[in-house]
Design goal:
Blueprint lengths: L1 H9 L3 E5 L7 E5 L1 H23 L4 H19 L4
Antiparallel strand pairs: 1-2
Length: about 80
């Protein structure tokens, strides 16, 4: 991940800010140029997601996908043991 962040920093899409809670860490923040790139990419990204996922899954499949995604997100938000 640090390689990809470094590439985006070089392109001016993101910046790094010191993390007050962890001197070893940094927050990656979107720059104005990064926001423009994200906004430009969003319509194509949404169309691809629709074509590959939404349009081919049944309502039941989408409900299962949402349920699984929510379990994963909840796990990501919970503190590590």
């Amino acid at each position: 991940m640090s390689y990809q962040v470094a590439r985006m920093v070089k392109r001016g899409l993101v910046g790094r800010e010191q993390c007050a809670d962890d001197a070893r860490g940094a927050h990656v923040v979107l720059t104005p140029a990064g926001r423009e790139a994200l906004e430009a990419a969003a319509p194509h990204h949404a169309a691809v997601v629709r074509r590959l996922i939404v349009d081919v899954l049944s309502p039941d499949d989408l409900a299962t996908y949402a349920r699984i995604s929510n379990v994963i997100l909840a796990q990501m938000d919970s503190p590590s043991p």
